[in-house]
Here is the input.
Amino acid sequence: MSQSMRRFLSRRDFLRAGAAGAAGLAGAALLSQPSIARPLAQGPGSGHTDHSPYAMEHGAAGMVGEVDNVRNGFDPMQMLVDWDYGQVSTLASGQTLREYSIVAVDKDIEIAPGVFFPAWTYNGRVPGPTIRCTEGDHIRIKFVNASVHPHTLHFHGVHPFEMDGVPGAGPGEIATGQRFTYEFDAEPFGCHLYHCHANPLKRHIHKGLYGAFIVDPKAGRPPAREFVMVMNAFDTNFDGENEVYAVNTVGHVYARRPIPAQVGELIRLYLINIVEFDPINSFHLHAEFFNYYDHGTTLEPTLRTVDTIIQAQAQRGILEFRYRWPGQYMYHAHISEFAELGWMGNFNIVQPVDFPAALAQVGMDETWDRRSTGGATVPWRGEAGS
Ligand SMILES: [Cu+2]
Here is the structure.
């Protein structure tokens, strides 16, 4: 039995391990990796500085230990803002060309402290790179399959049949060691995704082969602090149910490392649901309401002034909101079990003067700040002060 096999835990074990589900997750981590175990959140004055107010107040939502981002090769804090613009050049026609490289590789990743998952990945990370471009750009993705299974790249967007990345279309499934270049013009603008479409589809998706595909409108969107959040989940024992739920893979990561933002500024989330096995996921924001753009394909909200939305599998959209007062505001799936099993986080809303400290608290710096506020491929050309 491999080391990661021994660490597999059933959903029932997670829930049984503690009275509260999240305590169960912590308990599971405790059992699986005692060397990193330490007590659950002990409240203010305990000497622990990395627990969110939620953990301190409720005493149950923290997880024990830390996921090793270096070993994983990716950090969910960075994933919020690390847009991949590709290699940019201009075609003879004047059209912008963006060239991307995606390699499918099999890799064990740590999805909660001490809990490992034998993932299939794009570029060694789950989710794969966040591909970002402008409506009308020509997109060229050089795909190499270095995994032991056949895979594809299927984009949600408009493209010719042979670029659809499904069995029977164009090259169909790309075998181990083979390569194919997908190319098409990026449309429509919106918050989209890509994923593997090899058979069996459910398996290829839940193993980790998916990523965000953001197409900016030609006239841009109003300036905002932007984050990409891919809601995902992991079936660690392959029983057809998920044991860990998350945004950007690591359970409860943003509860432990609250996402910094400033009072009054526009916050824009590109939210995507790629959870398998559970038909519905949701997002609930605390203490504020947001406007929602379903699929991101409109410039006017499709829902106004809501604090909860649901997304079916592969559904996605854009959320926009501002916080009026400083504080640590929670957001989570309003499916309580998902929240307890990892899908819960916090924004750390601070005054501008306190922002550098809020960044430092989660190990981020001005580069992260610039990526979060300057991610768009085109400047906003509309009215100011939206
Ligand atoms: Cu696949």
Observations:
- The two ends are 57 Å apart (CA to CA).
- Confidence is low (pLDDT under 50) at residues 1-8, 14-60.
- Residues 151, 196, 198, 204, 209 surround copper (II) ion (CB under 6 Å).
